[in-house]
Specification:
It is a single chain. The protein has 326 residues and is an alpha/beta fold. It folds into 2 domains: 237 residues, Zn peptidases (Aminopeptidase), CATH 3.40.630.10; 68 residues, Beta Barrel (OB fold (Dihydrolipoamide Acetyltransferase, E2P)), CATH 2.40.50.100. Helices cover 25% and strands 24% of the residues. The radius of gyration is 19 Å and the shape is globular.
Length: 326
């Protein structure tokens, strides 16, 4: 299927009975095409009559960042999944996408955002914070997110994204003089806001599904199954809803470490959720300084190709959170 760089292709199906409004996104990052392929399969089911939307509204966006998708790269001109908000003064391609995407998200109740990752690992879901009234990310629908994540077909759920990103901002401020911050990730915690975080600011709830490694052909199967499960769980279709996954592992992001120089290198090939022990050497800086794990935990999103000033890897720890809303 061809996708133009000058428009968003949006497919919408409205049931004749009332129900929730679900939006599913693919290719927020252009090199992450499993969501696109999964959405295309669901579209084929809908167009053939093998699947029908009985209630509520389903909106499918197979390619959310057309420029990045056309390039086959993570970004078009910048990362669409950072600093996502409408603006009256768009500065780049992603700003113009945001001006179309943000109002669309605000029209919905639930978002399923489909992604993939670079290093080998099993698929997993990411959810927002527990219910809270704090200024960073106030939220009141944690149980609904947990219930959805537990039905996507994966065994691991991770939270703590935006709070960990805010810690990373403080680290960048501490190590970088004001005159040297050009080109670095924003030093404003709101720069960590992407599709799911924006959705929560609009009164909805959202789950990110990391479907597998970019090149893994099974990742599109994970995306397809997750969309079908979501439709059944929310009652948009008359398919029997899936049971919550038993024995889920909950992790919480605790720390982010940036790559500071092009010659910073990992000590070995790391995969997400590899166990690390406090003090274990994860990588070395360009000057030979070892980068050691600050705590026992799990490495998440190791990116040997990260640009200097960007996230190199995260550390996660076991989370006592349990799945509610079953």
């Amino acid at each position: 299927m061809n996708y133009s760089m000058s428009q968003l292709r949006i497919h919408q199906f409205a049931g004749l009975a009332q129900g929730p409004r679900l939006i599913v996104l693919g290719a927020v990052h252009g090199s992450e095409t499993c969501g696109t392929r999964g959405i295309e399969r669901v579209l084929a089911d809908l167009e053939s009559g093998g699947l029908e939307i009985a209630r509520g509204t389903l909106t499918l966006v197979p390619v959310t960042n057309p420029l990045a998708y056309h390039k086959g790269e993570r970004n078009g001109e910048r990362n669409l999944n950072r600093n996502l908000r409408p603006t009256d003064t768009p500065q780049d391609f992603e700003d113009r996408v945001a001006n179309a995407l943000c109002p669309l998200l605000a029209q919905h109740d639930v978002l399923l955002d489909l992604h993939s990752f670079q290093s080998p690992a099993e698929p997993f879901a990411m959810v927002g914070p527990q219910n809270n009234q704090r200024s960073l990310e106030p939220f009141s629908q944690a149980a609904l997110e947990e219930a959805l994540a537990a039905r996507l077909g994966v065994d691991r759920i991770v939270d703590g994204w935006l709070s960990t990103y805010a810690v990373g901002v403080q680290q960048r401020l501490a190590r970088t003089a004001p005159t040297e911050r050009a080109g670095l990730l924003s030093t404003d915690p709101s720069y960590g806001v992407g599709t799911t975080e924006f959705m929560r600011t609009q009164g909805g709830y959202a789950v990110t599904l990391e479907c597998g490694q970019h090149a893994d052909p099974q990742a599109s199967d994970v995306a397809y199954r997750a969309i079908r499960n979501t439709l059944a769980h929310l009652g948009l279709t008359d398919v029997s809803p899936p049971e919550a996954r038993a024995g889920l592992e909950w992790l919480r992001l605790a720390l982010v470490v940036d790559r500071l120089h092009a010659d910073d290198a990992f000590t070995r090939v790391w995969s997400s959720f590899d166990l690390v022990q406090a003090g274990e050497c994860i990588g070395t800086r360009h000057d030979g300084t070892p980068v050691r794990a600050a705590t026992d935990g799990y490495i998440v999103f190791p990116n040997p190709r990260a640009l200097p000033g960007n996230e190199w890897f995260y550390l996660a720890q076991r989370n006592l959170r349990t799945t509610a809303g079953r």
